[in-house]
Write a structure and sequence with these properties.
The structure is a homodimer of 388-residue chains. Chain A contains 12 helices and 16 strands. Chain A has helices spanning 6-24, 29-36, 40-52, 115-132, 166-174, 183-193, 253-256, 258-269, 282-289, 293-317, 332-346, 365-385, and strands at 27-28, 56-61, 72-76, 82-87, 92-99, 104-111, 135-142, 145-147, 152-156, 161-164, 178-182, 202-207, 211-217, 220-221, 321-325, 355-357. The radius of gyration of chain A is 23 Å and the shape is globular. The relative contact order of chain A is 0.13.
Chain lengths: 388, 388
C-alpha cells in the first residue's frame, strides 16, 4: 500500500466530509468527526477550507440541547451555484437551470433537431442560457451508449450521432465543465437526490423510443460490469414475436416502446401514419383522446407486454417501488389497466406489494437529474480535487 | 444525532477494522489507520483487544520497504476457529467442517429425510460433528423462505417444514450460535469470499427443485427491499406455458427446474417414473447416460428456456459472469449446447462477452458458504459486539 501524499489526504478527507453531509444533512463539526472517523482537528481544518471555497456554509446551530455550547451546523452550499441540465431526447429536448438543490430558475421544452442540426441546436440553447445565467457547469443526458468517465456520447442511434465528445466541446465553446450520462441514469439520480422519494431500493423505467431501467440498490445506481445494466427493452418477452432493431426477436421494445405502439396502431387500423420511423406514440395518444378504439387497443397491447416485463424485473430485484417515466408514460391512462392486469398475473407473491407509480416531478426529471449531477461533479472535481 | 457511548464506539471501531482487514488482506497498524480514518492510537488500542480475543493475529512484517522500522502485519485469525456448514437440500444434504478460510476438515453428503425425520437427521448430524470437532458455531443453508435476522426458516415448501427457529433450537440443544440463510445466498457468499473468484459483479444461478439467483453487485449481495430478490424461477418465460406451483403460468421453473425435466421426460416418453413429485432430474440424467434420446431431449428443452431466462437476467444486470450451480447443473453436459444457443440468441449485444460457467468448487459450495458465513457472524457478534 502506498503512503498517500499530504494533498491527496486532504482531498480524500474533504470528499469524505462532503459525502457525509450529502447523506446525513446538516451536522456540527463534532458530529462530522463522529460520522467520518476523522480527527476533530482534521474536520476543523478541512471544513474551514471548504467554507472558504463556498462548498459549505454555516446554517444555524444544533437543535439538540447538550451540555456546553451548541455546535454550529454546517451544510453543503446547494444554493449558491447554478447549473444547466440538458435532456437530449429524440423527439423533444428539455433545458433547465437549477441550483444544487434542484430549485428550477429556467425551463424550456422544444422539438429536437437531427444530426448536425441537433448539435447546432444544443450549442445555441446553451449559449442563450449561458448569457442569461452565471452557470458553473453543464449536465447532459442522452439516450444510447454514453461513456460518463470520458464525457462522451459513443453512439445514440435514435439521434443519429456518434463519438460526440461533449466534455471537450463544452470546454472549448463555453469554457465550462460538462458531465454526461445516460438519460435513464439521470432520472434515477434525480429520484435518489429528490427528498420526496425515500426509497433505497427502486427501479425507474424509461419508456420512449427504447425501454431502459435505472436500478437503484441500497441508494446506489447499479451500472453493471461494463456500464450496460438496465437494458429492460431487450429482455425476450415473446420468442415468436417481432424482429427488433438490435437483431434479436421478441424484445420488450418491439411491443411496448413508442415506435412499437405506432406500429401496432398501423397494423390494427391498416393505416399508414407516414412518418418513416420518426413517429412517436404521442400521435397514437392524440387518436386515443379522440376516441379511436384502435389507438386505445394499441396502448393496451403495449401495456400487456410491459406488465410481463416489469413483473420479471421485480421478481429478480424485489425493489420497494417501480417508477414509470419517459414519453410513453404520458399515455399512462391508456396503459394503466392493461399494465396492472398483466403485472398482477405475472408477479411472484413475495412481490405482490411492489407498486407501480409515476414520479411526481414530471417531464423535467431527466434534465433536473443532469443539473444536480453536474453540481455534485463540479464540487467534487473542480472545487475539491483540483483546488483544495 | 445521539452521542455514541464509549463501549459502542469501541465495538464500531473494532468492526470497522475487521471489515477493512477482510476487504484488504493483512495490513500494518499504520495502514489500518489510513484505511479506516481512525486515529493511530485508537487502532493500536483496538487491535490489542482483538489480538487478545484471537480475532486477529500477527503475520510477519510489511514487504514494502519504508524509511524507519517495518510495520508488523495484522490479519484476521481465519485458521483458529472451526465451524459447521450444513446445506439442507430437498434431495441431498451436505455437512462440512471448515475454518474461516474455508479449509475443509470434514465433509459428508447424504440423502435428506423429510419433515420430522429431517429435523431428527439434522440434530443427529450436528451432534456427531460436535463431538468430533471443537466447533464454535453453525451455518445453515435452506431452500424457501428464510429470515436471516431471526435465524428462522419461515417456510421451506420442498422440505415440508415451516417456522423452524434454527437459532433457538441450536442454542438449546448444543449451546452453539447458529446463522441461517437461503441456499443460493450462501453460494454467492462462498464465491465472494473464495479468492479464486475476483469478480465484483456476478450472478450465481441455483437450479434444483426451484431456480434462484444470487446477485452480487460491487461485491455485495443484492437482497432487495423485503429480502425476496432472486426469484429467477418465477419470471414469465412462456405466457401460454405450464401452470406453476406458485399459482402463475409459464414461470421459468415450470420448464427448467429439476421437476420440470422429469415432467418433460414423462411427457415425451409417455412413461410414468412413479415418483409422486419426489423425483429429481438425476433419474433423467441416468437415462441420458444410458443413451435414452428422450431423456437427452428433456434436458435440451430445459436448456432452451434456461438460456432465454439467463439472457433476460444478464440484459437487466450486465454482470461480469454468470455461474450455474445446483442439482440440475450436474447434468450440464446435456444442457450446455441448448442453453448456450438460446442464450446467444437472446443476449443483447452489449452483453455478448458475459460468459456462463460452472463454479470450480463443486457440490460443497453451499455448505462452505454457510460455514464461512458462520465464522464472520461469530467473530462480529460473539467476539466483538458482545465481549469487547
Amino acid at each position: 500500500m502506498k503512503k498517500a501524499s499530504l494533498s491527496s489526504l486532504k482531498v480524500n478527507n474533504a470528499l469524505l466530509i462532503f459525502e457525509s453531509l450529502r447523506n446525513n444533512g446538516p451536522m456540527s463539526r463534532a458530529n462530522i468527526a463522529r460520522e467520518t472517523h476523522l480527527m476533530p482537528s482534521t474536520v476543523s481544518y478541512i471544513t474551514s477550507l471548504l467554507l472558504e471555497k463556498r462548498v459549505l456554509k454555516e446554517k444555524g446551530s444544533e437543535e439538540v440541547s447538550r451540555v456546553g455550547k451548541k455546535g454550529v451546523l454546517l451544510d453543503i452550499n446547494y444554493e449558491d451555484f447554478l447549473f444547466l441540465g440538458y435532456d437530449v431526447g429524440s423527439a423533444y429536448s428539455r433545458v433547465i437551470v437549477s441550483n444544487g438543490k434542484g430549485d428550477i430558475q429556467y425551463s424550456k421544452r422544444f422539438e429536437s433537431k437531427k444530426n448536425d442540426s441537433l448539435l447546432k441546436q444544443i450549442y445555441e440553447n446553451i449559449q442563450t442560457v449561458n448569457k442569461k445565467f452565471n452557470i458553473k457547469g453543464i449536465g447532459m443526458a442522452f439516450p444510447g451508449y454514453v461513456n460518463p468517465e470520458k464525457g462522451m456520447v459513443v453512439r445514440a442511434h435514435n439521434l443519429d450521432i456518434s463519438n460526440f465528445d461533449v466534455k471537450k466541446v463544452m470546454k472549448k465553446e463555453f469554457n465550462l465543465p460538462a458531465y454526461v450520462d445516460h438519460n435513464t441514469i439521470m432520472m434515477a439520480r434525480n429520484l435518489i437526490s429528490n427528498n420526496s422519494h425515500k426509497e433505497k431500493d427502486f427501479c425507474i423505467i424509461n419508456i420512449g423510443p427504447g425501454i431502459g431501467v435505472g436500478i437503484v440498490n441500497d441508494g446506489k445506481i447499479l451500472r453493471g460490469y461494463s456500464n450496460a445494466a438496465g437494458e429492460l427493452g431487450h429482455i425476450t418477452i415473446n420468442s415468436d414475436g417481432r424482429k427488433c432493431n438490435c437483431g434479436k426477436k421478441g424484445c420488450l421494445e418491439t411491443e411496448s416502446s413508442s415506435k412499437a405502439i405506432v406500429k401496432t396502431y398501423e397494423e390494427l387500423s391498416g393505416e399508414n401514419l407516414n412518418c418513416e420511423g420518426n413517429c412517436d406514440s404521442s400521435i397514437v395518444y392524440k387518436l386515443a383522446e379522440d376516441g379511436n378504439k384502435k389507438a386505445i387497443k394499441a396502448f393496451e397491447r403495449a401495456g400487456y407486454y410491459l406488465g410481463i416485463g416489469i413483473a420479471s424485473l421485480v421478481n429478480i430485484l424485489n425493489p420497494e417501488k417501480v417508477y414509470i417515466a419517459g414519453g410513453v408514460s404520458y399515455g399512462w391512462k391508456y396503459l394503466k389497466s392493461s399494465v396492472e392486469k398483466s403485472y398482477k398475473e405475472n408477479i411472484f407473491y413475495a412481490n405482490k406489494d411492489v407498486k407501480l407509480e409515476l414520479p411526481s416531478i414530471g417531464e423535467y426529471i431527466t434534465a433536473l437529474g443532469a443539473s444536480t449531477f453536474a453540481f455534485e461533479k463540479y464540487i467534487k472535481e473542480e472545487l475539491i480535487s483540483r483546488k483544495l
